[in-house]
Amino acid sequence: MESVALVAPVTALEFTLCAVAGGDGRLLLFALSRPGAAAKLTLFEGAVHGLSWVPRPGLPPDNAAALLASGPGGEMLWLDITHRPGQAPWVQLMGRYLLPPCKQRWHTCATFLPQKGLLVCGDRRGSLLLFSCSSSSDWAAESTSIVNGGTDPVVEDSSNELEPSCLLHKGALPLESPLSVLFGLHGKTGVTSVTIHRGYIYSTGRDGVYRQLRLRDQHLEVLQKHRPCKGLQWIEELQFTSDGDLLVLGFHADNFVVWSSRTGENVHCIPCGGGHRSWSYCSSPLAEVFAFIKSGDVMLYHREAEPCEQQVLLASLHGREITCVRRLGAVEVPGRATVNVFVTGSEDTTTCVLVLSENSRAAVPLARLSDHISSVRTLAFAMGPGDESFGDEGLSALLFSAGGRAQIECYRLLCTGDTETESAVACQVIHVASHRLDKHWEQKKNRHKLVKMDPETRYMALSVVPGTSTKQLPTPWKFLAAACSDGSVRIFGLLEAARKLVLVAESFHHQRCVLKVEAFLHTWAGGERRHLLCSAATDGSIAFWDITGPIMDAADALHQAEGEMQPLGLDAPLVTIMAHSCGVNSLHIRETPEGQYLVASGSDDGSIHVCLLEVALGKDEAMAGTCLQVLERVHRPCAHAAHVTGIRLLRPDLLLSASVDQRLTLWNRSPSELVPLSTTFFHVPDLAELDCWEVVDAGGELRYYCVLCGKGLEMLCGTASSKPPPQEASQ
Which parts of the chain are coiled coil (predicted)? Predict the structure, then answer.
């Protein structure tokens, strides 16, 4: 016998159905409680390669299940098996399916989609396949006489010498091809399990990744992938617990591992010799049992539940320091207080979507994104709806994350209120696109004439270019500016529908590490728009660019070349300001009511610089195009005792700065000076970034909120009067 499949007891402790298939294509079915009553039938003319039990909606779970068998030529049969006490199991042939061509052409796992009439299965090549069950079920319903009570039955008792064959009847069934194929989704080592949970499909494989998918227009669509922990390359199964945790079961080296996605650590680690063995795992509040076969012996590991003496006072959000934080927005939850949704990035290579409630003062993670191979340095949002299939309610945005190894990842986030969960918010994540410079290097033409990019290039900051969908630029492409450690400023284009992220323009003007970048939009009285960009480097310089032309040229080139192009060059900056004596660690731009722009920056030397800019048109042909004029400049040396890593212009006359010295200072800005109004000490060491927003409370009072990250996360709230006197401190 080449394949054996066992199904768990389908009536409580009364029997276990066993299916045994051999190299001659024959199948033997019997109940272990009464092995004498068996059913024999011939499935194929050759060996049976794959055999698996699948619970099926519509069949009574106490005495019936579906059996899938794969044979020569990639043919897969669907059989419904019903246990009959005292008799041989009853078999009905339901469908025939054709697996895609590959060297090892058999299925490894499958599941039925409830109320969809569809079957999802994984094969040995690592592909996920979607089949229709409705037509097969209709044919089987019309042909019950063939398999039950006809003159030539498919199944006979083992006491009868006649051994019928499915070959006589399966020719009447159509051989159906898959509706959707995700070829090699889990690599060449195969798909190990397929699970349905809350309407989503989850697949695991021996590539160290489990994926979340959905069904859309009878096609499988990957939403995101997860890599549980380093070294867990052989994932076998997922288990969803009643308390909302997701357990990942697999093999790490020579150990069987149960990994918790909630705590981010191994719950159990059992030495067993590694994978490539039959095993079974079961857990309950009282005990856990792991059985496996090793060297022909059946081994049993049993452990009774023990009271946990360790209590977590405050769960960590990341394994290392938090490098960036952004507020996505607020979600209204019926019957509960409004909660804020944030996204954080860390040195531990993960990005976390979380809620932070002002009332409970607790941070609850909603989703963890683990696509980066190095640290996450910066985040950026593009607010607005994208995927109509999720509806219009809640917060919807494109999330860009970037960091080490010149890697950018893009996701679509949708957060909605959900009163049934602990966080009161449900978050759906769709992975849209990714980009790595070294990954695309081999695709470049004439690369032997170019200097290869530094593999250690890091993206230091990101900024979404606003207002690109206009009459002037009628394109679905979104554009993203990136500050890079190799001295370049790069522009990327994203086409969400095609899931493409393309490098469209770049410039090495700074000739040194670019630390910060901010894009902003200027609109003249006639409605014409100009896309402007501000970049800051380690020498303290701040450059201002007009990127309108390159963006329009890139949009045309992308449209004509169907999403592929060679990067364009950016024009020289409009103006460059030497704002500091060393690196610029924080940068913020705010438009004034007069249509001018305030640019605030903080430096490694503890200084703060604020300048007022005006955008104008060139007056003569020699200066045609956009011009920038510096109207005011204010410099405050030694504003802090350490690096200024966070700065925000709350109002044209109000500035907030934060530093590694753990001081949060509010400043009053005038045309000639910065006057400190108040200082608050915060508790987060090694501050990395600051984000701010404002809220009008029920009493009509304007309140300012800020969130700080570093070796921890902290949210603060304060107020400021409309005209604060310099000698008085705000609350």
Answer: none
